[in-house]
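Below is a filled-in request sheet from our internal design queue. Each sheet records the structural input a requester submitted and the sequence that came back. We keep these sheets so that new team members can see what a complete request looks like end to end.

REQUESTER: design group, bay 2
PRIORITY: normal
MODE: inverse folding
CHAIN LENGTH: 166
BACKBONE (tokenized):
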């Protein structure tokens, strides 16, 4: 209809504080998705990368990881925004960060996502650079992962424990 505004919005990648992998199998999934993973609680990811190489034994079974896994990502933040990543850097504790791919938000609430990756790990580096817009900055964050969990929109997935032990 003319003049009607579509309030659904697809965002390629967003990062949230929280464990979407545990939530994906929860009976309270829909309620928590609407609240904890609301659009205003996440950060739009500008860049995202990591490399995870598993070892294989002589029959091809995977075990361990060859090297530490660092998840690198950049988000755009408002300069007066609460700095979750700075707080976690000072905290020195591990936490969960969920990267939601192709999330569809309606009225600011997550309704659907294609896939997600939850990282259980430590914030080891945060670097902030001013943006052309004086109210925004680009924040580059590095997470040292303890575990990666891949989640499909139906809740199925795979978890990889990051460990150099056999």
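RETURNED SEQUENCE:
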């Amino acid at each position: 209809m003319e003049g009607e505004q579509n309030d659904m919005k697809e965002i390629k990648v967003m990062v949230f504080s929280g464990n979407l992998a545990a939530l994906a199998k929860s009976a309270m999934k829909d309620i928590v998705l609407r609240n904890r993973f609301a659009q205003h609680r996440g950060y739009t990811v500008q860049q995202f990368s990591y490399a995870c190489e598993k070892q294989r034994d002589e029959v091809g079974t995977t075990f361990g990881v060859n090297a530490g896994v660092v998840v690198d990502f950049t988000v755009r933040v408002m300069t007066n925004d609460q700095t979750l990543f700075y707080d976690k850097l000072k905290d020195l504790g591990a936490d969960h960060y969920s990267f939601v791919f192709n999330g569809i938000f309606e009225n600011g609430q997550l309704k659907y996502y294609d896939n997600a990756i939850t990282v259980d790990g430590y914030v080891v580096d945060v670097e902030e650079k001013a943006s052309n817009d004086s109210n925004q900055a680009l924040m580059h964050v590095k997470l040292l992962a303890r575990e990666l969990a891949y989640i499909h929109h139906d809740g199925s997935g795979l978890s990889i424990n990051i460990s150099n032990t056999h």
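SHEET NOTES:
- Residues 1-6 have pLDDT under 50 and may be disordered.
- Residues 8 and 106 are 4 Å apart (CA to CA).
FILED BY: M.R.
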